């Protein structure tokens, strides 16, 4: 009985805060817009019966998503931006994690603290700070002008570049921490063994360090890719009109168009797209747990 | 070849494979190795023996190329190997933790070093198969290191380090992680493999029994210095210092003053009440010089009646008996409190032990049984 209660807690949590809301969103996505509150129809009316209610639902909105090229372009563009940002985060995160793992033992807690420290200030404030840095009159351009590297200020804010910078900056800790955890566990004598058997430092890194931190790399990439795909705040604050991301489209459907059914359909499709990497991520974690036994 | 016995260290014509020349190694303030010189010859099975922190692992890591000497020179086959990085050395190392690559199969672990040598696929495969056969691992070649037992892992590590046919194989506490029974079997396996391959082995261990079993010569180390380098038998029977005598095996140490009493014979005054002891020593002692007499327990006879015609006889009472199955060790307390250990082999199965606790007994040994040591 006690076990049943313990197990039921997370399931109840998921049921109340994930499954039921998702079913509501799914239902809205199958409805039509209406001039009413809430702005869609039909509403469930017990007098008419469930059959009649279900009969009014259709996949019209999903069909619409395929007809207007805005949506699939936004999905593709989001995938691309998330992919590129993940690659860049890995490119910056790996050396940082490697440096941390190789640092003297007594420094590591401090370095770890420094990586986590940005979380102590509001995410929104940090993104606004980037606006101050990247704008035409911002710190970066002032510095570049002062150094004489450029004559005219670079336009970075309100471009995709700013979005990439924002995403890489924000999600860097999610990349560093799992890679650091993997590298920290790495037995130093493995590298010595590789060198002893004829590897140069670089080859030993490629043949031993990289494969043995693979799980950390995969975990970090998913932790960055999954939230980056649906990112809304960063593209809307740092991106320009040309930045097409599904999070922004979703927001506009809801608040500008007040088309809840289409917005819900967009959200449902986004969730389906995310299910693939999430399942892959889970499998990676499971494989890692098995390998460690 | 003048002698059938393998003893290149006694032949001045022989060139050593490894030569440590006045090597000193410091880590910051700490001196791990003090001005140490040592020759190791080809085909030797050389053991570096000492307590933890004595510098034996540092010696090995300098041979492997993971540390460089602060002062002095290390030669391998006449060449200074100080500036040679580990991946360019003709040495291979078997790590204490085995350091098997967890992401590679047993086969790929063994092939790892061979693949770095630009050998053809067929050559690599042939050598790996040979190594698998040598270490009896054929059945496990497809498994990952975490899917095999500790003893098998140890053999994979050995096969991997032998695969490149190194001039010198370094073994860092190779049997430390194995249980006693398996360790003993593996010791003989190691000796067989060393003989078959003709590779020079240098083994680091803190287990004196292991060093005595496998090695052709043993170097006993303490605090970065060599205490004695000799064959296991010499180390055991003619230790040069109390430290070595005490470190290897069980020993009784009697402290006293030596007085010459004949040719290479000395009288040792060691107690105010008990008669002096007699011992022989090739090394001269001046009259009244401080000395230590080291006697192995198995060379002390124990009896209930006073033995006739023994060089040294003392009487005492049995304080403790340690029954080890094959042997029994008696701790005998002499008047004045000194404890002398005597060991007898239990050659007969009958359990009728006629000596028991608190029995008055006689201990006796010959003048040649003990070793007289200055320090």
TrEMBL record, chain A:
Entry keyword annotation includes DNA-binding: no
GO biological process, one term: transmembrane transport
Pfam families: BPD_transp_1 (PF00528)
Domain ABC transmembrane type-1: 75-281
Similarity remark: Belongs to the binding-protein-dependent transport system permease family. CysTW subfamily.
CDD domains associated with the record: TM_PBP2 (cd06261)
Cellular component terms per the entry's GO annotation: plasma membrane
Transmembrane parts of this sequence: 12-30, 79-99, 111-133, 164-183, 263-281
Membrane topology, record value: Multi-pass membrane protein
Transit peptide as UniProt keyword: no
Protein known as: Putrescine transport system permease protein
Location in the cell: Cell membrane
Top-level division of the source organism's lineage: Bacteria
Automatic annotation (TrEMBL), chain B:
UniProt cross-references to InterPro entries, sorted A to Z: AAA+_ATPase, ABC_SmlMolc_Importer, ABC_transporter-like_ATP-bd, ABC_transporter-like_CS, Mo/tungstate-bd_C_term_dom, P-loop_NTPase, PotA-like, Transp-assoc_OB_typ2
EC primary class: translocase
Catalytic activity: ATP + H2O + polyamine-[polyamine-binding protein]Side 1 = ADP + phosphate + polyamineSide 2 + [polyamine-binding protein]Side 1
Biological processes annotated in GO: putrescine transport
Entry annotated with the keyword Repressor: no
Keywords: ATP-binding, Cell inner membrane, Cell membrane, Membrane, Nucleotide-binding, Translocase, Transport
GO cellular component: ATP-binding cassette (ABC) transporter complex
One Pfam family linked to the record: TOBE_2
UniProt keyword Iron-sulfur present: no
Domain ABC transporter: 18-248
EC number per UniProt: 7.6.2.11
Entry superkingdom: Bacteria
UniProt GO molecular function: ABC-type polyamine transporter activity; ATP binding; ATP hydrolysis activity
Residues annotated as transmembrane: none
Family of this protein: Belongs to the ABC transporter superfamily. Spermidine/putrescine importer (TC 3.A.1.11.1) family.
Function comment: Part of the ABC transporter complex PotABCD involved in spermidine/putrescine import. Responsible for energy coupling to the transport system.
Complexes and interactors: The complex is composed of two ATP-binding proteins (PotA), two transmembrane proteins (PotB and PotC) and a solute-binding protein (PotD).
The protein's name: Spermidine/putrescine import ATP-binding protein PotA
Organism this protein belongs to: Sedimentitalea nanhaiensis
Organism classification: Bacteria, Pseudomonadati, Pseudomonadota, Alphaproteobacteria, Rhodobacterales
């Amino acid at each position: 009985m006690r076990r049943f209660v313990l197990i039921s807690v997370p399931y109840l949590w998921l049921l109340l805060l994930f499954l039921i809301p998702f079913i509501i969103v799914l239902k809205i996505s199958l409805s039509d817009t209406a001039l009413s509150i809430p702005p869609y129809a039909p509403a469930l009316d017990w007098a008419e019966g469930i059959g009649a209610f279900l009969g009014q639902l259709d996949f019209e909105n999903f069909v619409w998503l395929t007809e207007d090229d805005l949506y699939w372009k936004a999905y593709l563009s989001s995938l691309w931006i998330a992919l590129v940002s993940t690659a860049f985060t890995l490119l910056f995160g790996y050396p940082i994690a490697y440096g941390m793992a190789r640092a003297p033992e007594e420094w590591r807690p401090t370095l770890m603290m420094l990586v986590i420290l940005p979380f102590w200030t509001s995410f929104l404030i940090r993104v606004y700070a980037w606006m101050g840095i990247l704008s035409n009159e911002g710190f970066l351009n002032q510095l570049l002008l002062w150094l004489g590297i450029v004559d005219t200020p670079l336009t970075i804010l309100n471009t995709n570049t700013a979005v990439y910078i924002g995403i890489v900056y924000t999600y860097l800790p999610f990349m560093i921490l799992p890679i650091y955890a993997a590298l920290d566990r790495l037995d130093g004598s493995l590298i010595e063994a590789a060198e002893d058997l004829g590897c140069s430092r670089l080859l030993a890194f490629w043949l031993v360090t990289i494969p043995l931190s693979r799980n950390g790399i995969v975990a970090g990439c998913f932790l960055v890719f999954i939230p980056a795909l649906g990112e809304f705040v960063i593209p809307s604050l740092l991106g320009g009109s040309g930045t097409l991301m599904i999070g922004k489209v979703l927001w506009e459907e809801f608040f500008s168009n007040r088309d809840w059914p289409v917005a819900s359909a967009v959200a449902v499709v986004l969730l389906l797209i995310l299910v693939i990497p999430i399942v892959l991520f889970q499998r990676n974690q499971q494989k890692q747990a098995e390998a460690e036994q | 070849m003048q002698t059938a016995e393998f003893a290149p260290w006694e032949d001045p014509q022989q060139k050593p494979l490894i030569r440590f020349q006045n090597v000193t190694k410091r880590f910051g303030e700490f001196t791990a190795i003090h001005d140490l010189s040592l020759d190791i010859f080809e085909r030797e099975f050389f053991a570096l023996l000492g307590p933890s922190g004595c510098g034996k692992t540092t010696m090995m890591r300098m041979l492997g190329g993971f540390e460089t000497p602060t002062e002095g020179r290390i030669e391998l086959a006449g060449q200074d190997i100080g500036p040679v990085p580990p991946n360019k050395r003709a040495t291979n190392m078997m790590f204490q933790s085995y350091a098997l690559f967890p992401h590679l199969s047993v086969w790929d672990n063994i092939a790892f070093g061979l693949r770095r040598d630009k050998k053809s696929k067929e050559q690599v495969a042939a050598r790996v198969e040979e190594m698998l056969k040598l270490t009896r691992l054929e059945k496990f070649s497809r498994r990952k290191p975490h899917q095999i037992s500790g003893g098998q892992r140890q053999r994979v590590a050995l096969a991997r380090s032998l695969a490149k046919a190194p001039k010198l194989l370094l073994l860092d506490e190779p049997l430390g992680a194995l249980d006693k029974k398996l360790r003993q079997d593996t010791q003989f396996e190691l000796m067989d493999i060393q003989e078959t391959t003709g590779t020079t082995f240098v083994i680091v261990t803190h287990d004196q029994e292991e060093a005595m079993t496998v090695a052709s010569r043993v170097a006993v180390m303490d605090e970065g210095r060599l205490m004695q380098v000799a064959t296991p038998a010499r180390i055991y029977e003619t230790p040069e210092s109390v430290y070595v005598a005490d470190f290897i095996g069980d020993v009784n140490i009697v402290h006293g003053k030596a007085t010459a009493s004949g040719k290479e014979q000395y009288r040792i005054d060691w107690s105010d009440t008990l008669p002096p002891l007699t011992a022989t020593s090739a090394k001269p002692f001046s009259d009244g010089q401080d000395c230590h007499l080291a006697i192995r327990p198995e060379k002390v006879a124990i009896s209930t009646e006073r033995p006739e015609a023994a060089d040294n006889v003392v009487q005492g009472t049995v304080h403790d008996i340690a029954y080890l199955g094959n042997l029994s060790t008696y701790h005998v307390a002499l008047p004045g409190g000194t404890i002398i250990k005597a060991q007898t082999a239990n050659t007969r199965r009958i359990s009728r032990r006629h000596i028991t606790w608190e029995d008055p007994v006689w201990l006796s040994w010959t003048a040649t049984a003990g070793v007289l040591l200055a320090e």
